[in-house]
Known about the structure:
heterodimer; A: alpha/beta; Aconitase, domain 4; seven-stranded mixed beta sheet; 8 helices; 7 strands; B: alpha/beta; Aconitase, domain 3; 2 domains; five-stranded parallel beta sheet; 16 helices; 16% strand; Aconitase_4Fe-4S_dom (chain B); branched-chain amino acid biosynthesis (chain B); 4Fe-4S (chain B); metal-binding (chain B); metal ion binding (chain B)
Amino acid sequence: MDKFTTHTGSVAPLRRSNVDTDQIIPAVYLKRVTKTGFEDGLFAEWREDEKFLLNQPEYRSATILVTGTEFGTGSSREHAVWALKDYGFKAVIAPRFGDIFRGNSLKNGLLTVELPEAAVEELWLRAELHPEAETTVDLEACEVRAGDRTWGFEFDEFLRWRMMEGLDDVALTLRDEDKIAGFESNRDAWRPRTLPAQV
Amino acid sequence: MSPTPHESEGTAPRTLAQKVWDAHTVRTGGQQPDLLYIDLHLLHEVTSPQAFDGLRVAGRKVRRTDLTIATEDHNTPTDNLFTIADPTSRKQIETLRANCEEFGVRIHSLGDENQGVVHVVGPQLGLTQPGMTVVCGDSHTSTHGAFGSIAFGIGTSEVEHVLATQTLPQAKPKYMAVTVNGSLPEGVSAKDLILKIISITGTGGGKGHIVEYRGQAIEELSMEGRMTVCNMSIEWGAKAGMIAPDEKTAAYVKGRPHAPQGEDWDAAVAYWQTLKTDEGAVFDKEIVIDAASLSPFVTWGTNPGQGVELSGTVPAPEDFEDPIARTTAAGALEYMGLEAGTPMREIGVDVVFLGSCTNGRIEDLRTAAEVIKGRKVAETVNMMVVPGSAKVREQAIAEGLDKVFIDAGADWRFAGCSMCLGMNPDQLTPGQRAASTSNRNFEGRQGKGGRTHLVSPAVAAATAVTGHLASPADL
Lengths: 199, 475
């Protein structure tokens, strides 16, 4: 995973809430067997509308998406995160995220930050008035900075460390392989097994 | 017998979910999240290819092929068992087959009697049992919570993690109870109940919580009804939904291919009987609902929380106090092509979809068949009936349900996710309106530009007959 410490870029102000993962990337785009190449699917249906935010030239190079609450609810598709990354987003800011989406984002180096609605509103207004204005998302300091404004955010200490180090969960877990083996040796014998197959 | 983890816990009162959680912690405490052991890992073609790739790159194996099983469902056609016309869909299915072969994972492919929607297949094989941890790269994994298991959807990175380690790091959840007192009135189903719950909580109300559904109305539900309720836990943002196992649960599992047998059965049942929330256990939050006040419930908008009684009308954005809800409602009405104030019963539909992991089991087909028997699907409606698995289809045929649907003019299909999500050939066309027994009415979910009303199987069948949203009582 890519390390994430801090990122500075311009903001795309997506004034929508309840953006589920079907909106982020419709199911028809989930057929690839690779982890990349999903940028075409990002907000695919909305992008057909020429008035849609990401079709405006001033937001084309935005790398921070600021959106309404309940972003990424619904389907578990990690493709939603891959699509945002492939398109060029490095961070997403919203008052609240769907749990599975949030977990997926942090495993792929896409920083998702929860800020209160008032802060999101300010960031929207600012990006609408000054699309080129830069915003910094600083994971080290747990701060979002825009102009003379600074908002702190909460972030789980373990997840923050993992993201800043760019560590892979599997390798971390395998450090406790002995504990896993110990647990397995104590499992109840009646617990079901898929093999050999009984049909 | 050596002591098992669940016997070594202390005496402080615990919730059902805490008991199952505690029995599966490989590692707890310290700065890292708990490490949970996973009892059953279900795979399908869409969320697994990149996970297998990750294993290959790192030179890792599947740690426990005997706790892993795959089937094909999201991409599969439902008009035939052999020809996947779309090359990218075919490639995804072929990739799953090749991965299962290479890594030694059991797979039920198209044409196999145990192929079908992954959340129908697990319980059908008796692989889903009480007190387990079940995961799958699919948000509707919460279905399996109906057995008193902690079951939740995961992303592809987590699929790879479970394949490699049979565990998952998980932050400790919060615990919530949804208590449904009294009995559901005649004609009100599990689907109506869960749609009502989501309309109260909104799509984010359950965030971070494992929810235990309990109370008389929940106890009175069949196992399949309980699966419908738990299935849609994710639609109000819950981490998982679960229901304490009881005699109905044991009776449902007993005799299935992977059910414990002999002494194992006795040991398993003895454990299952401990799986209930202790007197005095504390939930972080509780919602109480009076079942007697419920009636058939349907959605009008573009998220599952935007629902209303079938007897009600399409709301106006001004009806919502919260400014965000107001804006969302306005957008939803526009997408859905609906006028505020329209009685729900006057909304005509083009398509009725009966199926999915929410309502594609045998009881759902029976309920709908009973309504539609001797009647005809309206000429303006295309009704699609898609059994949740090949086995459900077989059973329906044995009971003559296929004839009921075919005689009524419905389209009787093969098993799969079908029109629940637009990634196989079964899709709405732009502007088409559907009454659907599935779980999501998101924009474009059932096909680009398609408009979805979520309904119960009984309402779906009555709607197919009348051509507009209706309940069996209207026929």
